[in-house]
């Protein structure tokens, strides 16, 4: 299969967790829609690596275990394990969706999901000031009772809706399974990795420096950017629920952006033009990737318009 002139060799495609829907049924439908565009990229001669968010999915898993614990005493499941479960079942849906699309096209490429750990610094400042809410809501009394029994857990009032556990969001430092991911790519696999930003782990020097999971959340866009750098990708696609990055979003003065330099994007981000918990992390990841090597580009666009985005008819391009 020849590679068209000017086309990149290696692309990381990041699917937003919310863009995959809030239920398994919605997720299957949206994965099937995305698979068509993903296979189109490969047919153009590119290698692709897929990563994805997991916010709604890991929340669903956590809430299910919390409800089962309350109702019938099922053992509680902590965040690293819930993250691993979400990576597995989202990867399974992606493998099946891509497999169905390959079957339609009479292709016999291989797809593999890598349950991915990402090393973080145990001294990361975020561990001292956790802010990322996870899991179900509790009353103040329930939350204080849990904190008294388990002092390592922190709960805060969440906008008057109830009390929720908060965890750190440390910067990703190293993809533990990077050699496995690269080996699969070298053997012509479509690889799904770093789901939900990856499972945060630290070195356990009480156990010969082996890795152990920590209750934290790595920003999925930062994890996807690290994956793109480590895989030596040319393009990072961040596919989400909106077609473009915009300034004055949600107002009559909204203006969609189609092409930005990293410096222009950074200026707008520093001005507070992008949502702190939504678009800004994507733009910051795009800036970092665009600056990491000459010629790299990040494209942000809508999952339901993936084909148009990938062909340059939609989306926002950020480059060096």
What does this structure look like?
This protein has 320 residues and is of the alpha/beta class. The protein is 38% helix and 24% strand. The chain has helices at 24-43, 55-72, 79-105, 140-149, 178-186, 220-230, 262-270, 279-292, 306-310, and strands at 10-15, 47-52, 110-113, 117-119, 132-138, 154-157, 163-167, 174-175, 189-192, 199-204, 210-213, 235-240, 245-247, 255-257, 259-261, 297-302, 316-319. An 8-stranded mixed beta sheet has the order 3-9-2-1-12-16-17-15, with helices on both faces. Helix 2 packs across helix 3.
Summarize this structure as a short list of keywords or feature phrases.
38% helix, 9 helices, 320 residues, 8-stranded mixed sheet, alpha/beta, 4-stranded mixed sheet
Distance between the termini: 30 Å
Strand order in the largest sheet: 3-9-2-1-12-16-17-15
Tell the overall outline: globular
Beta-strand proportion: 15-25%
Mean pLDDT, as a whole number? 91
Q: Which runs of at least 5 residues are low in confidence (pLDDT < 50)?
A: 1-8
By secondary-structure content and strand pairing, the structural class works out as alpha/beta
Discrete helix count: 9
Q: Would you count the extended β strands for me? A: 17
Largest sheet data: 8 strands, mixed
Taking Cα atoms only, what radius of gyration do you get, to the nearest Å?
20 Å
| Helical fraction | 25-40%
- Reading the helices and strands in chain order gives EHEHHEEEHEEEHEEEHEEEEHHEHE
Query: Assembly state here?
Result: single chain
């Amino acid at each position: 299969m020849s590679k068209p002139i000017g086309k990149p060799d290696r692309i990381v495609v990041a699917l937003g967790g919310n863009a995959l829907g809030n239920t398994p049924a919605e997720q299957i439908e949206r994965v099937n829609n995305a698979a068509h565009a993903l296979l189109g990229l490969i047919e153009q001669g590119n290698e692709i690596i897929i990563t994805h968010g997991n916010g709604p999915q890991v929340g669903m898993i956590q809430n299910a275990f919390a409800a089962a614990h309350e109702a019938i005493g099922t053992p509680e499941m902590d965040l690293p394990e819930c993250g691993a479960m979400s990576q597995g079942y989202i990867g399974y849906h992606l493998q099946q969706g891509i497999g169905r699309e390959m079957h339609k096209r009479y292709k016999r490429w291989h797809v593999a999901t890598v349950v991915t750990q990402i090393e973080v610094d145990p001294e990361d400042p975020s561990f001292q000031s956790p802010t990322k809410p996870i899991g179900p809501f509790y009353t103040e009394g329930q939350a204080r009772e849990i904190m008294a029994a388990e002092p390592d857990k922190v709960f805060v009032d969440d906008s008057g809706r109830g009390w929720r556990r908060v965890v750190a969001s440390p910067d990703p430092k190293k993809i533990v399974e990077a050699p496995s991911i690269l080996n699969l790519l070298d053997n012509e696999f479509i690889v799904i990795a770093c789901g939900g930003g990856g499972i945060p782990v630290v070195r356990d020097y009480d156990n010969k420096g082996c890795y152990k999971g920590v209750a934290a959340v790595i920003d999925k866009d930062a994890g996807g950017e690290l994956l793109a750098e480590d895989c030596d990708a040319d393009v990072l696609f961040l596919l989400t629920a909106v077609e473009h990055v915009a300034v004055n979003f949600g107002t009559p003065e909204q203006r969609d952006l189609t092409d930005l330099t990293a410096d222009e994007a950074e200026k707008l981000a520093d001005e507070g033009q992008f949502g702190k918990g939504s678009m800004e992390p994507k733009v910051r990841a795009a800036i970092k990737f665009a600056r990491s090597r000459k010629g790299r580009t990040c494209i942000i666009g809508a999952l339901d318009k993936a084909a148009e985005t990938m062909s340059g008819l939609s989306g926002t391009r950020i480059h060096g």
